[in-house]
Amino acid sequence: MARTTFDGPVRTLKGFIATGNVMGQAIGAGTVNGATDIDKYQGRAVTIGNTTTVFNLPEIVSDTNTTPNTLSTIGLEYTFLMTANLSGETFTLNAGTAAGRSTADVFQGTAQYVDTGDNSMEGFNAAGADTLTLDGSTRGGLGGSIVYCRAVGANIWLIQCALN
Question: What is the pTM of this model?
């Protein structure tokens, strides 16, 4: 089905369930421009193997227009899953000026991680940063690590990480 736009709220008693092979998208080595590939990665589970990958999030646009053709990007969401240990490779997630955008979008949120030395749960505050870099040794890039981010307001990406 082609892209469909509704004018007004859409209501369903059974919910919307997105399924199919395109709901999981793998990224290989290199840089992905999230602004030009919004429809390919937004709302999907993006898998990352043992490659050096950079993902530049789109610019957050808080257009107050309420027509179906609004330019607002608030609500965009991305989920990244490490499917393998990053061994000598990195995954970098950029927002705002770090992603080459004209706005100073930043992350607000937290990251929790399992310390593999003693299996304790630890964490840190990701507030105010515009770059998150994972690797397989000291920065949470082991297989099973998950990074979730969502554009929630002008210049704010909510970020939640469960890292190994």
Answer: 0.88
